[in-house]
Specification:
Two copies of one chain form a homodimer. Chain A is an alpha+beta fold. Chain A contains seven helices and ten strands. In chain A, strands 1, 2, 3, 4, 5, 6 and 7 form a seven-stranded mixed β-sheet that branches. A three-stranded antiparallel β-sheet of chain A has the order 8-10-9. Chain A is elongated. The structure holds a DNA duplex.
Chain lengths: 288, 288
DNA sequence: GCAAAAGTGTTGAGAGTACACCCATGA
DNA sequence: TCATGGGTGTACTCTCAACACTTTTGC
């Protein structure tokens, strides 16, 4: 796609792309309770029925390649690196192009590069982000033209080394799912403890003791009661919580992560974010 | 420096550089015990006197910029991204150009980029690695032409946002210093528990209970007695250990890290590393 | 013996786990 | 009153920090 005459220059600058691993709970998971959550405090303790199908799975959207190499194969959503965007903004836009959802979490995962795929003659570097988005409605998972959602356990064969990258992201997610930080990003802004618990089990794929999970979450001090109750099945209504990050939570993961407040900033495309940790930049420097 | 006519193309590909934060213990730290460690098993339990000055600090080499912008200021060592090199190899070469030491640890830290420094008109992306090298001899810390070592607590003002990057790397190191993995990289291949302990204190800057530290290290199962003893002061000789990584240690940190075995590979410049995790690559992909 | 460093033992607090148990609710 | 999920109590283990203590060495 036209980067000038390649053979003209001995050391052609590598092309840089941004890719995103977008993760969400699949349609067979717990349903979000957003429908009845709104700002009016009309009934301090109202309850409402919703349905739930526990034990969902992680799904992710992939895009079909419309160019060589790997034409027709599935690949991670991505885009070019724009000069007037931060890396995060580029990742955000790649995410937007494949899903209508907004990421609740967006963090740089790793940068991949090297000579082993000089296929086109140009070296390639891909800066990969991973994102968590709220659970999509079932209809969102239906096939679109060139975008399709796949469950984590039934991925098609992927272009490039994207399978390796996805495994990388899944491993990262499972490492960090212990804390309410990430778990809450996969459900709606308000949730019951059982929903969180089901998310944790869906992500790890292993059973998690519910009682202890409850205590761990509550002990984190990052959950706050909304005052509402919700009835999932036909039984006793459950307390609804929301996630309240505490100030000093920046374990490198959250340092770079998109918080709810910065997400809005990111949406404005040409925003010039002043947050050091989000958009630190530097120049190249050679000693010779 | 000549990437063609910039105004010719609307979307100029960004330039990519590789920078390295190189960390080592300073000259005032414990001395390495390498001098008397060799392969001959002539004396199963010989001891030897060496000197030590505890409570060292972390030092790092910086290079003086010889170009605008920031001409004359200090900056992280770095280099351009070569098409025929993996990212790690590029980082390795940047490291070699500033120190004669070989990294015991080399891991990708973060990729920085964004519009806020479009100074030259070209957007810049820097893939930053951080490295731990064995303790250098005191003479290595003397000033060279354009390379100088600085203690972590007395850094000069730095070009670009390199100060932010260094803080990033230091934070990462302090997070992970709990485990023998990283601690052992900062000392020689063989060491006493007290040396490890002093390293831990130097890195964290806080006192660490020696007795508990000993137990934790030994409990890791990654330390192995060499059978030798060494006398640091004039007191009771201490057992010498070496680091033996266990097979299943890959907590993402070590997955990408340079192990002793791969370090040799890296040294051969044109080596085509086949390790997936070391040199995973992918192409750019746009849905439009 | 004394000082200094190597190395060990002991105790208690806190976190995490397994699992039994009670409570609220609709059928 | 029963089934089901919400929510609590409890006892056991494990880890880890604190710190007292013993051992080995040169002087």
């Amino acid at each position: 796609m036209g980067y000038g005459n390649v053979s003209e220059r001995r050391r052609q600058p590598p092309q840089v792309g941004v890719s995103v691993v977008i993760l969400a709970l699949g349609p067979s998971s717990v349903a979000p309770i957003e429908p009845h959550v709104n700002d009016n405090e009309e009934t301090g303790a109202d309850t409402e029925n919703i349905t739930a199908e526990p034990h969902g799975r992680l799904w992710m959207p992939l895009v079909r390649r419309i160019r060589e190499p790997y034409l027709g194969m599935w690949a991670l959503p991505g885009g070019e690196l724009r000069a007037d965007r931060s890396l995060e903004q580029c990742a955000y836009e790649a995410l937007e192009s494949t899903t209508d959802l907004h990421p609740r979490y967006l963090e740089q995962l790793h940068t991949f590069g090297g000579p082993s795929r000089s296929r086109g003659g140009l070296p390639m570097v891909s800066i990969v982000y991973w994102a968590l988005v709220g659970q999509a409605e079932t209809r969102d998972f239906a096939e679109a033209d060139n975008v399709k959602w796949f469950p984590e356990n039934a991925l098609p064969s992927l272009a490039f080394d994207h399978r390796t990258i996805i495994d990388h992201a899944l491993r990262r997610l499972r490492e960090r799912i212990e804390y309410p930080d990430l778990t809450t990003r996969l459900v709606g802004p308000e949730f019951t403890l059982r929903q969180l618990h089901d998310v944790a089990e869906a992500v790890t794929g292993a059973p998690v003791d519910l009682a202890n999970f409850r205590r761990r979450m509550l002990a984190s001090g990052q959950l706050e009661e909304t005052g509402q109750k919700v009835r999932i099945g036909r039984q006793r209504p459950a307390t609804v919580y929301r996630y309240v990050p505490d100030a000093d939570s920046h374990s490198d993961a959250t340092a770079d992560a998109v918080t709810d407040s910065t997400a809005a900033l990111l949406r404005s495309a040409v925003a010039h974010d002043s947050d050091d940790s989000l958009d630190a930049v530097l120049g190249p420097l050679t000693t010779d």
